[in-house]
Design a protein that fits this description.
The chain has helices spanning 45-63, 79-97, 108-116, 123-134, 146-161, 173-179, and strands spanning 5-11, 16-25, 28-38, 67-71, 103-106. The chain is an alpha/beta fold. It has one domain (5-179): 2-Layer Sandwich (Nucleotidyltransferase, domain 5), CATH 3.30.420. It is globular and about 55 Å long.
Length: 186
């Protein structure tokens, strides 16, 4: 019998930070929560970082995660934006470290690939797939898809840390879908 574990996923941001929480029992993930931390009203970048730390700390105290999965910053043309995003990610990581929570970092392409089978999937595709996988009603999703990006980081971590024993061998997602048409609902 596997011990229950909680995974907190974070999609770092300096205007909106998304988060998602999963509970894992017996190698099965179930949806617990998702949401955003709205930082738009804070004009000082350093105060934004303080707020990120405080809010991630509150999430940690509320959900008591065993692990943190965070989306890695991706290269943008605007270096200043990338630096600010990296700082926000670092502050979220620091909040986890101060609570002795192990951290896993995943590139956006890896997260999208894990959820949809497509590294260039849109935020909408990721959200739609998570709703299907975790049986979440689309009407329960916040309008900001940063929330599902946080949940996607948590689910990607779940997939990376849970080996599923299967006798079936698949070459890729297309092969999997082809061999499981009866199990997959559109």
């Amino acid at each position: 019998m596997e011990k229950e574990r909680i995974i907190l996923g974070i999609d770092p941001g300096t205007t909106i930070m998304g988060y998602g929480v999963l509970r894992v029992i017996n190698r099965k993930a179930e949806y617990v929560a998702l949401g955003i931390i709205n930082l738009k009203s804070i004009k000082n970048h350093y105060l934004t970082l303080k707020k990120v730390f405080e809010e991630v700390t509150l999430l940690i105290e509320k959900y008591l995660p065993d692990e943190l999965a965070v989306e890695a910053p991706f290269f943008e043309k605007n270096v200043q934006s990338m630096l600010k995003l990296g700082r926000a990610q670092g502050v979220a990581i620091t909040a986890a470290i101060t609570h002795d929570i192990p951290i896993a970092e995943y590139a956006p392409l890896k997260i999208k690939m894990a959820i949809t089978g497509q590294g260039r999937a849109s935020k909408e595709q990721v959200a739609n797939m998570l709703c299907r996988i975790l049986k979440i009603s689309v009407s329960d999703l916040p309008k900001e898809l940063d929330a599902t990006d946080g949940l996607a980081a948590a689910y990607c971590h779940f997939l990376q840390t849970n080996s599923v024993v299967s006798s079936a061998k698949y070459k890729n997602w297309k092969d999997f879908v082809g061999k499981n048409k009866k199990k997959i609902k559109n």
